[in-house]
TrEMBL record:
GO CC annotations on file: cytosol
Matching Pfam families: AsnC_trans_reg, HTH_24
Protein name in the entry: Lrp/AsnC family transcriptional regulator
Annotated source species: Acidisoma cellulosilyticum
Matches recorded under PROSITE patterns: HTH_ASNC_2 (PS50956)
Molecular-function GO terms, alphabetical: sequence-specific DNA binding
Length: 148
């Protein structure tokens, strides 16, 4: 991957709706070699998807909750159940397996506290957990593409 690839990635990460002609002009290529680079980056898995970033407040989902999950069961069976729960729960928009004092960190997006409570009750009924800690976001200060 060279600097031209990185420039293409910076542009796409900032605005995936840019046309091929706009991207090519910005990186000083003609459209055909620019397209070949983009296709290669997609084929290599560097570009995983091109998506629109939606405004959660405008969609009636203004509450972000960061949920720390601790478990005493680290078996393959438990992990399979937990992974299925995460995959099947639309309120969970990001999930991370962690090192340190918590096992998993979930980013949950809901319409209000009652919706979070309903999510919480479904989660604790689905898999055995040792501890669940919820942190409610007051304001998002930064959301940015990867630092290329």
């Amino acid at each position: 991957m060279d600097e031209t690839d990185r420039a293409i990635l910076r542009l796409i990460a900032r605005d995936a709706s840019l046309s091929l002609a706009e991207i090519a002009a910005e990186v000083h290529l003609t459209p055909t070699p620019c397209w070949k680079r983009i296709r290669r980056l997609e084929k290599d898995g560097v570009i995983k998807a091109r998506v629109a970033v939606l405004d959660q407040k405008a969609l009636g989902l203004p509450v972000s909750v960061f949920v720390s999950v601790e478990t005493t069961d680290h078996s393959a069976d438990w992990l399979g159940k937990f992974a299925a729960l995460v995959e099947q729960t639309p309120e969970i928009v990001d999930a991370w397996r962690m090192g340190g004092d918590v096992d998993y960190l979930l980013h949950v997006v809901v319409s209000d506290i009652s919706a979070y409570d309903a999510f919480y009750r479904r989660m604790i009924a689905a898999v055995p957990l040792r501890n669940v800690t919820s942190r409610f976001a007051m304001e998002q200060i930064k959301a940015a593409p990867l630092p290329l």
